């Protein structure tokens, strides 16, 4: 248990031992026992008042380590990112309130901007909360958690629901002390979840301003996944999205357009932007043509998938266990590194070829004949109309 406190590098060994004993005693007391019943040292009495003003939630947040590269992120922001960064920090420094939305396709550096903001504030011993709609997005920000976990948002949030957080809790005190809230992948969240957080912060802060007068930065790409509304029409899905919230018109919007991930292939970057904006030429059914450089042709399922994997991960046999290698190549940064497996649609009498989002089915190491990862995302096409849907993450 003491390992949990090692992240707090500024505290002494004695204090870490004291905190460990305190946590053990609280756990035992919850079961009607006490640490005095066991062969364990008692917590020193001179430690009773140490950190008593800081709930565990605040101590955890203050102990988040800032990655070395994030300290330098502020100096590497492009003009678009720096404009947003400067305005957000200026509002915080002046003690004002503000709601912002960072809009940009995948690869334009939204996460890089978030990390620069977090590092800037945390380096000054200020609290900045990092959240995201999905756990994957939250995990790539230091100290990130899902918004539902951080704000205690109900799973089925609606107009009348409320976040289940007590105003007297340590979690509420953390919100009061925070200077900035970041919520990534906000377009994936139903607007009621965001509105529930607005109500929560107003209640916790005792302030009727939006989000209780706090500075909140939302971000995401509406070209990607919208809120999931089971069996909903497109109009019902849009109605559930952030753009239909009373908060949307009150947000200051920043648009990021420079694709930092695909900056070495400007044609690829422009192609993705045209697709996302609905500007790429289509046929009469709304389908677009995939550039030839991205196509891996189909022979049969097994051989074609192996060919796709080799095209994306050319050094898989020797570098499959390198997290950096697998992560770097999992996102295409050019037409030469982005591959789409084409499978004929046998139901299409005109003989056209389309595709779905194709990721991995299985990853093989030929020499070992061993499956490294099984992620069955291949979608069979016998009973579906295979029209192109681009993965713009």
UniProtKB/TrEMBL annotation:
Q: What is its EC number?
A: 5.6.2.3
Q: Which domain of life is it from?
A: Eukaryota
Q: What protein name is recorded for this chain?
A: ATP-dependent DNA helicase
Q: Pfam families annotated for this entry?
A: PIF1 (PF05970)
* SUPFAM superfamilies, sorted: P-loop containing nucleoside triphosphate hydrolases (SSF52540)
Keywords from UniProt, A to Z, are: ATP-binding, DNA damage, DNA recombination, DNA repair, Helicase, Hydrolase, Nucleotide-binding
Q: Which cofactor does it need?
A: Mg(2+)
Q: So what does this thing catalyse?
A: ATP + H2O = ADP + phosphate + H(+)
Q: Which organism is it from?
A: Sesamum radiatum (Black benniseed)
**Family (UniProt):** Belongs to the helicase family.
InterPro entries from the xrefs? DNA_helicase_pif1-like_DEAD, P-loop_NTPase
Which GO BP terms apply? DNA recombination; DNA repair; telomere maintenance
- DNA helicase Pif1-like DEAD-box helicase domain: residues covered: 76-284
| Alphabetized GO MF terms | 5'-3' DNA helicase activity; ATP binding; hydrolase activity
């Amino acid at each position: 248990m003491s390992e949990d406190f090692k992240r707090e590098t500024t505290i002494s060994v004695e204090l870490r031992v004291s905190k460990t004993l305190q946590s053990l005693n609280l756990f035992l007391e919850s079961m009607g026992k006490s640490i005095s019943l066991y062969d364990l040292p008692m917590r020193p009495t001179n430690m009773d008042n140490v950190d008593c003003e800081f709930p565990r939630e605040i101590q955890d947040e203050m102990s988040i380590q800032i990655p070395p590269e994030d300290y330098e992120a502020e100096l590497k922001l492009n003009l678009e990112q720096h404009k947003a960064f400067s305005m957000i920090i200026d509002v915080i420094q002046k003690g004002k309130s503000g709601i912002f939305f960072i809009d940009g396709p995948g690869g334009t550096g939204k996460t890089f901007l978030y990390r620069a903001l977090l590092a800037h504030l945390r380096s000054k011993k200020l609290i900045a909360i990092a959240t995201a709609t999905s756990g994957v997005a939250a995990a790539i920000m230091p100290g990130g958690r899902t918004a539902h976990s951080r704000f205690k948002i109900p799973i089925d949030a609606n107009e009348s629901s409320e976040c289940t957080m007590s105003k007297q809790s340590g979690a509420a005190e953390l919100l009061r002390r925070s200077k900035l809230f970041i919520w990534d992948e906000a377009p994936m969240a139903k607007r009621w979840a965001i509105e529930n957080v607005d109500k929560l912060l107003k209640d916790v802060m005792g302030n009727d301003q939006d989000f209780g007068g706090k500075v909140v930065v939302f971000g995401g790409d509406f070209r990607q996944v919208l809120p999931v509304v089971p069996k909903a029409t497109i109009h019902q899905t849009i109605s559930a999205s952030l753009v239909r919230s009373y908060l949307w018109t009150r947000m200051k919007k920043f648009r990021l357009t420079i694709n930092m991930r695909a900056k070495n292939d400007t044609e690829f970057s422009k192609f993705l932007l045209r697709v996302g904006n609905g500007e790429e030429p289509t046929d009469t059914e709304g389908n677009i043509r995939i550039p030839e450089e991205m196509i891996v042709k189909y022979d049969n399922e097994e051989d074609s998938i192996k060919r796709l994997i080799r095209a994306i991960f050319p050094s898989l046999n020797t570098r499959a266990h390198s997290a950096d290698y697998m992560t770097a190549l999992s996102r295409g940064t050019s037409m030469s590194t982005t591959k789409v497996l084409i499978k004929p649609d046998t139901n299409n009498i005109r003989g056209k070829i389309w595709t779905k989002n194709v990721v991995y089915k299985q990853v093989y190491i030929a020499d070992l004949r061993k499956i490294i990862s099984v992620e069955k995302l291949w979608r069979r096409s016998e009973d579906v109309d295979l029209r192109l849907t681009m993965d713009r993450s």
